Amino acid sequence: MENWELLRTLAIKNSSRIVLLVIDGAGGIQIDGKTELEKAFTPNLDMVAREGVCGLMDPVFPGITPGSGPGHIALFGYDPVRYQVGRGVLGALGIGFHLERGDIAARINFATVDEKGLVTDRRAGRIPTSFNQELCRELEEKVKVEGAKIFVRTVKEHRAVLVIRGKGLSGEIKDTDPQKEGLPPLDPEPITREAEKTVSLVKEFISQAKNILSSRHPANMVLLRGFSQLPHIPSFQEIYKLNPACIAVYPMYKGVARLVGMEVLSTGETLRDEIETLKNNFDSYDFFFLHIKPTDSSGEDGDFERKVKVIEEVDSLIPEILSLNPDVLAITADHSTPSLLRSHSWHAVPVVIRAKTARVDDVDRFTELECAKGALGRFSAKYLMSLLMAHALKLSKFGA
Amino acid sequence: MENWELLRTLAIKNSSRIVLLVIDGAGGIQIDGKTELEKAFTPNLDMVAREGVCGLMDPVFPGITPGSGPGHIALFGYDPVRYQVGRGVLGALGIGFHLERGDIAARINFATVDEKGLVTDRRAGRIPTSFNQELCRELEEKVKVEGAKIFVRTVKEHRAVLVIRGKGLSGEIKDTDPQKEGLPPLDPEPITREAEKTVSLVKEFISQAKNILSSRHPANMVLLRGFSQLPHIPSFQEIYKLNPACIAVYPMYKGVARLVGMEVLSTGETLRDEIETLKNNFDSYDFFFLHIKPTDSSGEDGDFERKVKVIEEVDSLIPEILSLNPDVLAITADHSTPSLLRSHSWHAVPVVIRAKTARVDDVDRFTELECAKGALGRFSAKYLMSLLMAHALKLSKFGA
Among all residues of chain B, which has the CA nearest to that of A374? Predict the structure, then answer.
C-alpha cells in the first residue's frame, strides 16, 4: 500500500495554509571545513530552525542521487521509485511543453550519419541552438503521420523533444540511439504489443525526418530515446484535498507541479518576483510550492561563493514569508548540490517545519549538521507531505 | 514479507523475561517551553534512560496519528497499515465483549427517524446510557435471525455494538448510517459476494429492531457502521514463542492484547493494582504488556498539570518493576497525546530499552527531545518487538 492510499482516507479540508519552500540543491559538503549553508550568514533561516522542528531527509534512499523529477516527486509525497517520470516526459516538461494525457514524448538528438547510414557523430557537432530551432520548425511543419499530431521542439544545441499526440498510443518503445558511433540507428521496437501502432508512427516520423534533413549536414538524422507518457499520479486534490499552487521560474518544476495537480502561477524571473507572487495569491490557495533555482545552478557551476550569496539572498526574503503567517512553513531542498562535486548528490538534505503544532527542538541553525540533531531525526522525503498535513491539522486519526 | 515472517524463523525460547510498559499518550508538545515529560520530576524514569538505550518511534509513519488499535498493533510488532482492526471489532473489544473468530461486529447509533423514515437525529438526542442499556437488553432478547446469534451491547449514550455469530459470515458490508440528517438510513450492501448471506441477516436485524423500537422515540431506529471481523493476526506464541500476559484496566487494550494471543490478567483500577498484578504473576509468564491509561485521558482533557502528576506517579512505581529484575524493560507510549491539542497526535514517542545486552548511550532523561538524541535513533514502532526479543537473546542469527 502506498502512503497516499492511507492519506487519502484521512485528509480533511480546513483553512490552514502550508508553504513548502524548496531551495534547490541547498545541501552541500564542506570546502575548507564549511558547507555553503554553514558559510552563509542566515539569521532568518536560523530563526525558523530555532522556532521549528528540524531533521534530515533522504530524497530517495541513502546513497541515491535524484534528478529534479524524482527529487520533487518525493517531496510531493510519492514514492519516487514507484512513480517514475520518463525521460521524454521530463524533457517536454523541462521546456514547458503542455503534455496531455496519452501523449508520447521522446528525446531527440540531432546526429550525423554517413552515406552508409552509420552514425558518425551522435551530437551533430553540437549544432547551435538557432540551427536546432530552424530544424524543429521545419520538421513540425512538414512531417505528417496518419491519425496523430507531431510536435518537434528545441531544447538546446543538438537536443530536442518529439511529442506524438493521438489515440491509443503507448510509450513502451526501445531507444533508436545506438549509444555508439560507427553503428546505424536502431529501429524503434515495441516492448509490449500495445506499442505496435505507435512504433509504426515513429518509423514514419523517422523516415520523413531523414528525408527532410538529408540536405542539413551535419544534422542529417534524428536519434530518439526515453519514449514515455505522463504517469498516472493521483493528484494533490484527490489525496490531500488541497488547493495547491506552484511558484517557480524554471519550466521543469512547473511541469512536475502541474503533473500532481498544482496550479502554476505566473511569476517573474527573480526571487523577489516569486515572493511577490506568493503574497498576491496567498488568500487563494491553501498550499504553496515555492521553488528557488539558483542555489542548484551555482552548485552545478562549482561556484561555492555564489551559492553562499544565493542562500543569503533567500535568507533575506524569509521575513516576508513569515509576515504572511502561514500555519505551516517547511524549508528544505529536493537534493544536495555540493559545489565541490559540481553536480547533484545523494547527501541528505536539511529540513525545518515551523508550526504552532510542532514539537520544537533545540536546533538553532539551518545547516546540514545542526538539522541532523533535530527531533525529526532522519527520514525519507516521501514522508514530508504527511508531516506537513499533520502539522496543519489536516489529517484525521487512523483507526479508533 | 512482513517482519514477523522472518522473526518466526529466528525466535527461540529461553528463560528471559520482558516487561513492556506502555504509558499511553505520554508524548507531548511544549506549553511554556516544556512538554509534560519535561515538566515532570522523574528521577526513576531518568535513571532507566541513563542505564539503557533510547530512541524515538513513529507509531505508524511520520505524520500519522494512530487510534489505540493501530498504536498497539504496531507496538506488538505488526504493520498497522497491513493489519487494520475494523471499527466494529474495536468497539466490541472496547466494551470487553469476547469476540470469537468469524463473528461480525458493527457499531450501532441509536437514532431518530420521522414518519417518512428520514433521519432527524443521528444520535437520538444522546439518550442516557441507562435507556441505551434497556434498549440493548430488549433487542438482544427479542430479535431472532435464522442460523445466527445476535448480541446487542451498550457502549455509552446513543452508542452500542452489534455482534452476529454464525457460520460463513463476512464483514464486507457498507454502512447504513447516511452520515447526514434528512436522509433515510441506507440499505446494508455487500461489498463482496461472500457478504450476501450476512447482508440478509443484517437486513432482518434492522427490520425487527425498527419494529421493536417504534414506540421508543427518540431512539426509534438503529444506524450501523464499521462492519468487521477479527483480523487473522499470527499470535505472540506463533511468532515469538512467548508466553505473554496483559495487565490493563481498560477493555480496549485487553481486547487488542487478547487478539495477539496474550493472557489478560485480572487486576484492579489503580496503577498500584497493576504493579501488584505484575509482581504476583512475574514467575508465570515471560512477556508482560503493562498498560497505563491516565496519561492519555488527562492529555485528552487538555489537563497538562494532571498529566504531569500521572507521569510522576508512574515514575514512583518504576523501582518496584526494577526490583523484579526483568531481563528487558522497555518504556514507551503507543502515541503522543499533547495536552495542547487535547487529542492523540502524530508526534513520535520516546522509548528506552534497559537490558544487560543494551549498547548504553548518554541519554539521561526520559523526555522526547533527549530520547531523540539516543543511540536507537528514530524508527518505526513495528520494530520495537524485534529489538526487545533481541535484547532478551531470544532471536537466533539470521543466515549463516
Answer: B372
Chain B residues with CB-CB distance to A1 below 8 A: 81-82
Residue among B82, B94, B368 whose CB faces A359 most closely? B368
Three cell numbers written together for B213: 423500537
Chain B hits for A359, Cβ within 8 Å: 27-30, 35, 336, 338, 347, 368-369
What integer pLDDT is reported at residue B1 of this predicted model? 82
Whole-structure pTM value: 0.91
Reported as a single tens digit per residue, the pLDDT across A39-84 is 999 999 999 999 999 999 999 999 999 999 999 999 999 999 999 9
SS (H, E, C) chain B: CCHHHHHHHHECCCCCCEEEEEECCEECCCECCECHHHHCCCHHHHHHHHHCEEEEEECCCCCCCECHHHHHHHHCCCCCCCCCCCHHHHHHHHCCCCCCCCCEEEEEEEEEECCCCCEEECCCCCCCHHHHHHHHHHHHHHCCECCEEEEEEEEECCEEEEEEEECCCCCCECCCCCCCCCCCCCCCCECCHHHHHHHHHHHHHHHHHHHHHCCCCCCCEEEEEEEECCCCCCCHHHHHCCCEEEECCCHHHHHHHHHCCCEECCCCCCHHHHHHHHHHHCCCCCEEEEEECHHHHHHHCCCHHHHHHHHHHHHHHHHHHHHCCCCEEEEECCCECCCCCCCCECCCEEEEEEECCCCCCCCCCCCHHHHHCCCCEEEEHHHHHHHHHHHCCCECCCCC
Q: What is the predicted pLDDT for the residue at B293?
A: 96
Residue ranges of chain B with pLDDT lower than 70?
Answer: none
Is A3 part of the contact surface with chain B (CB cutoff 8 Å)?
yes
ipTM of the complex: 0.90
φ, ψ at B162 (rounded to 5°): -110, 130
Point out the residue among B63, B338, B377 whose CB comes nearest to the CB of A390.
Answer: B63
What tens digit of pLDDT does each residue of A367-386 get? 999 999 999 999 999 999 99
The three-state secondary structure class of A174 is: coil
Determine the pLDDT at residue B2.
Answer: 86
Per residue in B341-383, pLDDT tens? 999 999 999 999 999 999 999 999 999 999 999 999 999 999 9
Residues of chain A with pLDDT under 50: none
Q: What pLDDT does residue A393 have?
A: 98
**How far does the CA of residue B43 sit from the closest CA of chain A (Å)?**
22
Task: Report the distance separating Cα A227 and Cα A248, nearest Å.
Answer: 26
- A7 to chain B: nearest residue by CA? B64
**Furthest-apart CA atoms within chain B: distance in Å:** 73
- C-alpha cell, A323: 509576515
- Closest partner residue to A400 among B60, B64, B90, by Cβ? B90
Beta strand B377-380 with B53-58 is parallel
- Bridge partners (DSSP) of residue B106 are B162
User: Residue A1: what pLDDT?
Assistant: 80
Q: Which pLDDT score, from 0 to 100, does residue A400 have?
A: 77
Q: Which of B65, B83, B368 to mutate to test the interface with A (most CBs of A within 10 A)?
A: B65
Residues 348-387 on A with a CB inside 8 Å of B are 357-362, 373-379, 383-387
Chain B partners of A358 at a C-beta cutoff of 8 Å?
29
pLDDT of residue B191: 94
Whole-angstrom Cα distance, residue B172 to residue B189? Answer: 9
What's the pLDDT at A343? 97
Interface test with B, best of A7, A9, A16, A359 (most B CBs within 10 A): A359
